[in-house]
Every structure is written in structure tokens, then in C-alpha cells.
Specification:
With about 90 residues, this protein is an all-alpha fold. The protein has five helices and no strands. It is elongated, with a radius of gyration of 16 Å. It holds the Pfam family HEAT_2.
């Protein structure tokens, strides 16, 4: 069982795998904090676990945290993808 301090340490260390494992913790506050921490890191590996969690977690507050984190991750990934797209010069 992880603690909220453990979640903070994992976020600070960018331990995406540890945070994903914490999504299965028995404590709903730990699961919520792990989800939100994954959202702030915006790692593509978190997309599927967060999507599953936002639909399946028994706690409404955890589902809400996962949905928020999912939006953050997907939004950041879209920003990165848009920045990679080649810029076409305007035609005259």
C-alpha cells in the first residue's frame, strides 16, 4: 500500500510505472493522487490505464480524477503532435 508521500516522491522522480501501479492501490485517495500525478507528467504510457480507470474504478471521485488526468495527458500529447507537424508557408 502506497502513501500520499510515496505518490509525491514518484511524481517528483517521474516514476510513471510506479504511479501506474499505484492506480490499483486499495486507498481511493492514493489512486486519485496517482491519477492526477500521471496527468501532470503527461506520459503516453498513462493513457490506457487512466482511460480504464475513469470508466471502471468503484469510486466516483477516483473516476473523476482519472478523467481529468486523462484529458491532461491527451491534451498534452496533441500539443506535442501539433508542434511536430511541418509548418507550410502561406500561398500567395
Amino acid at each position: 500500500m502506497a502513501t500520499l508521500d510515496d505518490i509525491d516522491a514518484m511524481r517528483d522522480d517521474r516514476d510513471v510505472d510506479g504511479l501506474i501501479r499505484a492506480l490499483a492501490d486499495e486507498d481511493e485517495f492514493v489512486r486519485s493522487q496517482a491519477a492526477l500525478s500521471l496527468g501532470t507528467l503527461a506520459d503516453p504510457k498513462a493513457t490506457e490505464p487512466l482511460e480504464r480507470m475513469r470508466n471502471e474504478d468503484p469510486s466516483a471521485s477516483v473516476r473523476e480524477a482519472a478523467a481529468t488526468a486523462y484529458r491532461w495527458v491527451v491534451g498534452r500529447l496533441r500539443e506535442v503532435e501539433a508542434a511536430r507537424e511541418p509548418k507550410t508557408p502561406p500561398t500567395r
